[in-house]
Structures are given as structure tokens and as C-alpha cells.
């Protein structure tokens, strides 16, 4: 290509200056036509990034996320239809109704896993490192 290009400039039949002028005229015509059909709206890149409404929506969204995170981290015990409340305690799980409660305690366990179920009950699995025993407790109301 490098060897052929200088030879093309020497060909007298091709009017290079006229072709260059035509290309420039076509480019200018295309740009002018584009300006004629452009709408009067401001392009997105020229609008400010943070307006007052956008900042308020962003702050409200962050507040909702924080409140939701706190509620999911520390949920309040919810009573079932019969007024029963299932909750974990420092040494077990319990079912409570009013002032009466039944607690299943397992004080010797080092590891515990708690899981609520879809029927409104709660299960716990305890593992004792000393004895190797696994204890499974489940409380529910009928």
C-alpha cells in the first residue's frame, strides 16, 4: 500500500482536489441538515446531574434502605392469629401468649441455629462441642 499510494497521486485522470472539495461539501451539508431536524430539547449531558428533586429522591431511597436493613437485622416478635409469640432467648426458644410462656432451654450448647417456619412455629438446632450431641427443638401453636 505504501508503494502504491505515491503512484496514485501521479495519475492525472483522478481530480483529487475536486473529490476532496466534494467530500467537505457533503460533510458540511450533513451537519447543516442535522441542525435543521434537531429538536429543541436539551441533551441529557447538558442537564445538571443532581437537581433538588433527584437529591430528595436519592436521600429518601437511602433512608428506606437503612430502615429496611435495621428491621431485617432485628425483627420484632410477631404474634400469630391465636396471639402466640415465638422468639429466641439467650439460652433457648420459647412460645409465649400473654403472661404465660413455655421455654425450651439448652444452656450447654456453643452453636445454635434458629429458623422460623411458614406455619408460624420456630425450630432450633444446638450443637455441644464437648459431647458432640445435636439437639433439635421445635415450638408451634395449635
The share of residues in extended strands comes to 15-25%
Number of helices: 3
- Give the neighbour order of strands across the main sheet: 1-2-3
Say how many strands there are. Answer: 6
Structural class: alpha+beta
**What is Rg?**
38 Å
Describe the sheet with the most strands: 3 strands, antiparallel
Mean pLDDT: 78
Termini gap: 89 Å
Q: What are the low-pLDDT stretches, counting only 5+ consecutive residues below 50? A: none
Topology order in helix (H) and strand (E) letters: HHHEEEEEE
Instruction: Note the overall shape.
Output: elongated
Characterization of the model:
The chain has 142 residues and is α+β, with helices and mostly antiparallel strands. 35% of the residues lie in helices and 25% in strands. It has helices at residues 4-9, 16-37, 52-73, and strands spanning 85-89, 92-97, 100-105, 111-116, 122-127, 134-139. Strands 1-2-3 form a three-stranded antiparallel beta sheet, with no helix packed on it. Strands 4-5-6 form a three-stranded antiparallel beta sheet, with no helix packed on it. The longest helix is centred in the first third of the chain and has 22 residues, at 16-37.
Keywords:
142 residues, alpha+beta, 3 helices, elongated, three-stranded antiparallel beta sheet, single chain
